[in-house]
């Protein structure tokens, strides 16, 4: 991958879905086990909703304050990956960070993270020390015709960054998986660069 900003991380996989970017980054988070152990002690609440019409089906999440996020090494890695999406006239700033956890039997719904004209970004980390292909838990991304455009499977420390207007859903783990499926999301809003 060629990025406009030399400080940006190189993606291991790139796709475009209906003109919207999606990039996968692997191998940049060496201490993923520390995050997994921390999340195993976190206070999750069943408060997260995919879309307004599915509000009665809440799933588990825990919020991270942005000032605490800025102190974490995982944020610096994320920021460097996001640099590859910036231009001289616009950049991105975080506005929300949280972790979801899903287990077998949970129900997760398709959704978008922003309106089509916003072009916000979602950075989604898979926080696991090991993940077996047979466990499922993929994130499915759909095109405008609701066909599966791609699936990104969990891998230890994998990061996927995508335009928030791409419809997607995290699939819960299969019955044979006893590990939690942790996904750490950082939402970025598009902002104009001063003086551009």
TrEMBL record:
Pfam families cross-referenced by the UniProt entry: 2OG-FeII_Oxy_3 (PF13640)
Cofactor(s) essential for the protein: L-ascorbate
Keyword Oxidoreductase set for record: yes
Keyword field contains Oxidoreductase: yes
Classification via Gene3D superfamilies: q2cbj1_9rhob like domain (2.60.120.620)
PANTHER family: FE2OG DIOXYGENASE DOMAIN-CONTAINING PROTEIN, PROLYL 4-HYDROXYLASE ALPHA SUBUNIT FE(2+) 2OG DIOXYGENASE DOMAIN-CONTAINING PROTEIN
Matching InterPro entries: Pro_4_hyd_alph, Pro_4_hyd_alph_FE2OG_OXY
Source organism per UniProt: Lysobacter niastensis
Alphabetic keyword roster: Dioxygenase, Oxidoreductase
UniProt-recorded name of the protein: Prolyl 4-hydroxylase alpha subunit domain-containing protein
Domain Prolyl 4-hydroxylase alpha subunit per the UniProt entry, residue ranges: 20-189
Domain of life where this protein originates: Bacteria
